[in-house]
Amino acid sequence: MVELSVPAAAQEGGCSGPPQPEQEPNDTPATATLLQVAQSQHLFDYMARSPSAIGVPGDVDYFRVDVQPGSLLSVLVDTAVLPQSPGSTTRDSVVQILAADGVTLLEWDDDDGTGVAAGAVVSEQASAVVGLPVSGTVYIRVSAWSAGDVLAPYVLWVTAKPAGFLPEVEPNGTSATAMVIPEYPILANIGSIDEDWYRRTFLGGGFHAILVDGDPERDGTTTDVRIDFEFNPVVINSSVGKGAPPPGAEAAWLGSGSGVVSVFRVRLAAGALGGSYSIRLACIGGDNCQVPVELQSFEVR
């Protein structure tokens, strides 16, 4: 166990800076668009976002990200951008995470992301990798599922955080006992008749994300969960029967605003077995992504 101390006056979150559009040509690792990730203080995120497009059939996009050793990388190819460009034929993306050689595949995903826009689920064919342990340079390769399709536009969201988790605090089985979740990842367990409730209040603007890793140990056993919001009809449950490979994940960007309160529950997807998962909320894209800090000391494991 590593004990962390967080000053009571500290503010979590940070800013990704302005959007960083892809720079064409970027269809090889050698020509990859470099995403300048902004590091905030202490254990806060590296953050980047890139408005991009698979503009013609057969196009692929490569991005390069440099992170600190021992980071947990999360990536979402958000295909719910409205409106679609003329000529766009799909919202089905694929993302691959490649090692520093630009060739070795570390992990990939088809449909573990949920694309949310205007308070509704627009796409269950977004791609997401959550909680992948990485160090140094990695490449992110984005393509349409079918080489003949055009995917325009999409937004690539990238966030990385030093490895480590806070424990889930029980009881949190009802809305009234919801655990106040900080920006640090929570390691939790869920059973067949269990459900876990969480609460988070954002004080400022920015884009708010929910990121769930169904296999935080990377041991090949995925816990398939769904997320329901108390004050929002959106259901995040994209990893069921959509052809996404293990490890399973759930990820969605939930829009922006001030004074946003997220209260939601995690429960098992239909027919899924219980197990462990990690969960975190993130805020990207604003100077005011602060949240209240309600913990001053805790353990990361």
User: Which architecture of the largest domain would the CATH scheme give at its second level?
Assistant: Sandwich
Biggest β-sheet strands, sense, barrel: 9 strands, mixed
Percent range for helical residues?
under 10%
Strand content: over 45%
Question: From the structure provided, what is the oligomeric state, counting identical versus distinct chains?
Answer: single chain
Mean pLDDT: 83
Q: What is the CATH topology descriptor of the largest domain?
A: Jelly Rolls
Q: Count of DSSP helices?
A: 0
The backbone outline, from C-alpha atoms, is: globular
Summed up, the domain count is 2
Q: List SSEs in N-to-C order.
A: EEEEEEEEEEEEEEEEEEEEE
Reading off the top of the CATH hierarchy, the class of the largest domain is best stated as Mainly Beta
Count of β-strands: 21
Low-confidence stretches: 1-15, 40-44, 290-301
Over all CA atoms, what is the radius of gyration?
Answer: 18 Å
N- and C-termini, Cα separation: 5 Å
Assign the structural class, choosing from mainly alpha, mainly beta, alpha/beta, alpha+beta, or little secondary structure: mainly beta
